[in-house]
Amino acid sequence: MELDKICQNCSSFFQDSKDLETDLGVCLNDDVFEPFLDEIMENADFSNCYEIYLKKRFDGGREPCDQYEEPEFIEIPDGQDINAYLHIEHMKHQNVDEIIKYLYDADNKIVNNAISVISKYVYIGNESAYKGLIKFYMGLGPAESLEDVYSRMKIVDILSSKESEKNTIDAYVNELARTPSNNTTRQLYTEILKRLSRCPHEMVQEPLLELFSKRKYSYKIKNRIMEVARASETDEYWYK
Q1: Do 169 and 132 touch, CB atoms closer than 8 A?
Q2: 58-59 and 24-27 as β-strands: parallel, antiparallel, unpaired?
Q3: How many CA atoms lie within 13 A of 28 on its CB side?
Q4: For a tag on the chain, would you pick the N or C end, based on fewer CB atoms within 10 A?
Q5: Does residue 187 sit in helix, strand or coil?
Q6: pLDDT tens, position by position, 53-73
Q7: Starting from the edge strand earliest in sequence, which strands make up the sheet with 13-14, in order?
Q8: What is the Cα–Cα distance from 161 to 109, expressed in whole angstroms?
Q9: What is the pLDDT of residues 23-37, one digit of tens each?
Q10: What is the pLDDT of residues 136-183, one digit of tens each?
């Protein structure tokens, strides 16, 4: 549907709830509203800067400026509750910096809680949550304790929702490169190799073979890695 090209139909034109029965509103591209944008969008009103709103409001029926953009209309899937859909869409784009910050806390309990919370955003498709979790996971040292193993297996499970992503595969392979295989880390190795076996073969083969130049593995682990890589034509790596 094509809208009349007026300010009121621009995606930057907003009205306070008290003005919804009028054509009065303001343009959020106005720099004066920048410090209040988060509250305006969250509360859907201008209660935190109402005097400025009153001073800046104008009739939305006027001709727009060159920053005019029509709003993007959202199609609600058939049978889905509109409130649930809008909540999911909000979570997809929500700023998760405060949650990510807690991934780096010194208290492991807080870290594990943050991992649980960030998982909801990763599963729902929040790209910032995914990138933040990847960055945190890639920055860890080798797993040394069972607590490390369980925490990382939880992260691996979360990342499994993005197994076609190169960053996920890199993170899996990085764990095999930094963490030695032993009785403590056996579960972690098993889980990662299982996940890698489900990833696109053309994306995992080369990174897995490169592992043999980075770390020495037991015959058994080499065999398991080679099995996942399915790269019999590159036997020269096997004997290095």
Answers
A1: no
A2: antiparallel
A3: 19
A4: N
A5: helix
A6: 999 999 988 998 988 887 665
A7: 13-14, 24-27, 58-59
A8: 24
A9: 899 999 999 998 888
A10: 999 999 999 999 999 999 999 999 989 889 999 999 999 999 999 999
Length of the chain equals: 240
- For the four alpha carbons of 50, 52, 55 and 60, in that order, the dihedral sign comes to negative
pTM: 0.65
Residues 6+ apart with CB under 8 A from 159: 122, 133, 134, 137, 168, 171, 172, 195
173, 207 contact by CB (below 8 A) = yes
24, β-bridge pairs: 59
Q: Helix 186-198 to helix 219-229 angle, to the nearest 10 degrees?
A: 20
**pLDDT tier at 2, thresholds 50, 70, 90:** low
